[in-house]
């Protein structure tokens, strides 16, 4: 007896493999995962505790509690410049689950999905789960520039259905500016493609913030320009230090929202109700912690760049303007997974191997700035000493 061919086709996570090794190796400095070192804000914790005390432990509506959806719609307009309605906000159990629901609402077997390479691995594997075909597009050109429509056009086929964008990027920390987004959206509109925007790091810009994909699309539409339909998937994990809460939301066009919710109903019925009350507090309450995290990440980035200045074997491969990652090219001829494994076992520091993020990640390592400052600097210092 064998299991599903679809499940067997899902590639194991190279990031998790290094994480598992690091967890089994005492004393390892862990720079491989994107988990904020900051605690969950007290008002968020108290909101969840109050919900539990008040008996908010029953099933909730599949689309999400009205209070959460209203807070999310207000936040998207206030922060992202996107006008939407709570009626088109659907709560999800973390950004990855929201992306999965969106994929299943859009894709049929054999459809092709254009995903960034390098890119977060789940953007590819979620397509595989749908029996769709992920097709990587180069995110970074030789000069570090972002992807362009000519590149996408060479990859497009009659089966291409969705273009996935992620800005700022995991793993590169790079971002797409308004001019680039306008070109990409115009190209997608000409070919009748849906655009799915992974907005996991939407507020984590370390330098000048770049616009939200859906905001650019709305401006183009208002100007009478051809515009594709955009689905935005947000997460509370990074912005509000709520990784363990598993909470996010999908903002979709009215034509797709019922399908997203139909998928949600069949897979999880509803998201935890006390968790949604915590999320409503995070979205509607004080945002001081968000700016504090940005300040910390900016400082950590600059300290790490100073450490890297002394390395001949490690090169910054993308401008770290957002998210909280450094994308490093290494001169070691070994595969990056082998390099990362050696760093754990021989030097006590864990980095994410670049080849976990797609073929374009070969020869690279990802450093997470989400780790506390002192161990981060110490860990990167060890990496420089080990690799030169």
Number of helices: 14
Using only CA atoms, what is the Rg?
20 Å
Number of E-type strands:
13
CATH superfamily of the largest domain: Type I PLP-dependent aspartate aminotransferase-like (Major domain)
**Range of helix content:** 40-55%
Q: What order do the strands of the largest sheet run in, or round the barrel if closed?
A: 2-8-7-6-5-3-4
Query: Strand pairing plus helix content: what structural class?
Result: alpha/beta
Number of domains: 2
- By CATH, the topology of the largest domain is Aspartate Aminotransferase, domain 2
Corresponding CATH architecture of the largest domain: 3-Layer(aba) Sandwich
Question: How large a portion of the residues is in β-strands, by DSSP E?
Answer: 5-15%
Uncertain parts: none
Main beta sheet: strand number and arrangement? Answer: 7 strands, mixed
User: What is the terminal-to-terminal distance?
Assistant: 50 Å
Shape type: globular
The averaged pLDDT comes out at 96
Could you name the CATH class of the largest domain?
Alpha Beta
Elements, N to C (H/E):
HHEHHEHEHEHEHEHEEHHHEEHEEEH
General description of the model:
There is one protein chain. The chain has 2 domains: 5-40 and 288-387, Aspartate Aminotransferase, domain 1, CATH 3.90.1150.10; 42-286, Type I PLP-dependent aspartate aminotransferase-like (Major domain) (Aspartate Aminotransferase, domain 2). Helix 2 runs parallel beside helix 13, helix 4 (66-80) runs parallel beside helix 11 and helix 12 runs parallel beside helix 14. The protein has helices at residues 5-8, 14-24, 42-53, 66-80, 95-106, 122-129, 149-155, 178-190, 213-222, 257-267, 273-284, 288-308, 336-347, 373-387; strands at 29-30, 89-92, 112-117, 133-138, 160-165, 194-198, 230-235, 248-251, 314-316, 325-330, 349-350, 352-353, 364-368. It starts with a helix and ends with a helix. The chain is 42% helix and 15% strand.
């Amino acid at each position: 007896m064998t299991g599903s061919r679809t499940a067997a086709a899902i590639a194991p996570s190279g990031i998790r493999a290094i994480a598992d090794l690091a967890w089994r190796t005492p004393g390892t400095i862990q720079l491989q995962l994107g988990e904020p070192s900051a605690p969950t804000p007290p008002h968020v914790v108290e909101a969840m505790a109050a919900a539990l005390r008040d008996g908010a432990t029953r099933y909730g509506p599949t689309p999400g509690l009205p209070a959460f959806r209203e807070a999310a719609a207000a936040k998207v307009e206030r922060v992202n410049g996107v006008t939407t309605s709570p009626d088109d906000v659907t709560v999800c159990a973390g950004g990855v689950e929201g992306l999965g629901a969106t994929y299943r609402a859009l894709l049929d077997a054999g459809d092709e999905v254009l995903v960034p390479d390098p890119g977060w691995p789940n953007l590819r594997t979620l397509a595989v789960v749908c029996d769709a075909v992920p097709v990587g597009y180069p995110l970074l050109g030789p000069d570090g520039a972002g992807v362009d429509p000519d590149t996408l056009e060479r990859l497009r086929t009659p089966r291409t259905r969705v273009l996935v964008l992620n800005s700022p990027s995991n793993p590169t920390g790079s971002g797409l500016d308004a001019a680039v987004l306008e070109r990409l959206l115009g190209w997608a509109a000409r070919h009748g493609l849906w655009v799915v925007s992974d907005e996991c790091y939407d507020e984590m810009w370390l330098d000048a913030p770049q616009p939200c994909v859906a905001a650019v699309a709305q401006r183009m539409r208002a100007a009478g320009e051809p515009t594709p339909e955009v689905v935005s998937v947000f997460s509370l994990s990074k912005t509000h230090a709520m990784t363990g809460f598993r909470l996010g939301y999908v903002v979709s066009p009215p034509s797709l929202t019922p399908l997203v919710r139909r998928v949600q109903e069949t897979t999880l019925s509803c998201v935890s109700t006390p968790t949604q009350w915590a999320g409503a507090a995070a979205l509607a309450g004080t945002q001081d912690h968000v700016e504090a995290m940005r300040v910390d990440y900016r400082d950590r980035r600059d300290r790490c760049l100073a450490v890297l200045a002394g390395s001949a074997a490690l090169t910054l491969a993308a401008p770290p303007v957002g998210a909280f990652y450094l994308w490093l090219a290494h001169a070691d001829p070994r595969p990056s997974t082998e390099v990362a494994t050696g760093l754990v076992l021989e030097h006590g520091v864990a980095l994410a191997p670049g080849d976990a993020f797609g073929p374009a990640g070969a020869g690279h390592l990802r450093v997470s700035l989400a780790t506390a400052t002192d161990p981060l600097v110490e860990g990167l210092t060890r990496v420089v000493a080990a690799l030169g």
